[in-house]
Amino acid sequence: MTRQPELWLIGIGTGNPDHVTLEAQLAIRDAALVMVPRKGADKADLADLRHAILAASGSSAAVVEFDMPTRDETLPYAERVSRWHDRIAAIWAGTIAAARPQGPVALLVWGDPGLYDSTLRIAARLDPAPRLRVVPGITALQALTAAHAIPLNRVNGAVTVTTGRRLRDHGWPEGAETVAVMLDGECSFRQLPGDGLTIWWGAYLGMPQQVLASGPLAGTGARIVALRTEARARHGWIMDCYLLRSEPGRIAAGNATPA
């Protein structure tokens, strides 16, 4: 059986090269091969940023770019994502086999590999399984709370991390007081009652084009929708997330009255 080289998943933060930790820089420098995904011409700056990080870290690794496959939007969501992951894993395997690296293979992962990122799940599909190393990175939630200069939680308070899809399908999580929402391309906060909620939103966190907005959801939601639409049109892509916090006793689970 052919032994896979080690696979290093290196978190690089949310777009600011200064987010790359010393551990990440050293790992990038020690990798033999770096695989860089291409996601289309409108997202070329994401690949360019990875190349800039490689150069700043003093990497001498071979660099191979690969085209990310698209998801089949006709399939049910879970099946769509599973098949997409299978295709990505096959591309990784073929790329590594063709390159025949004499040392570790690295992927530079946006944010952190452990928070709402599928790189670890894709790596688990490789056969034979490689030895994994994960280098943590600054997450979008850390960048968001830093940009707004707010704590993530109330004193002794819990934080629920969820997705836009789940917020749309199930409403406000039962018993939650602070909700962090990831992967929301549809501004799902519009499905929540506006009274009693405060929102902190950010896009392109840590990057020069960073955009922020915050305030009571009832008066801020529409402005965020407009900012998001304009920013996506200008750049061709967008990465954003937001934090919602309720006033105690104001939000009931499952409420779904548009703000």
UniProtKB/TrEMBL annotation:
Outline the extent of the Tetrapyrrole methylase domain. 7-218
GO term, biological process aspect, one: cobalamin biosynthetic process
Concerning InterPro entries, the annotation shows: 4pyrrol_Mease (IPR000878), 4pyrrol_Methylase_sf (IPR035996), 4pyrrole_Mease_sub1 (IPR014777), 4pyrrole_Mease_sub2 (IPR014776), CobF (IPR012797)
Q: Which UniProt keywords apply?
A: Cobalamin biosynthesis, Methyltransferase, S-adenosyl-L-methionine, Transferase
Molecular function, one GO term: precorrin-6A synthase (deacetylating) activity
| The reaction(s) this protein catalyses | precorrin-5 + S-adenosyl-L-methionine + H2O = precorrin-6A + acetate + S-adenosyl-L-homocysteine + 2 H(+)
List the pathway annotation.
Answer: Cofactor biosynthesis; adenosylcobalamin biosynthesis
| Enzyme Commission (EC) number | 2.1.1.152
Query: CDD domains attached here?
Result: Precorrin-6A-synthase (cd11643)
Q: Which SUPFAM superfamilies match?
A: Tetrapyrrole methylase
Recorded hits in NCBIfam families, A to Z, give: CobF (TIGR02434)
Q: What is this protein called?
A: Precorrin-6A synthase [deacetylating]
Q: Which organism is it from?
A: Paracoccus sphaerophysae
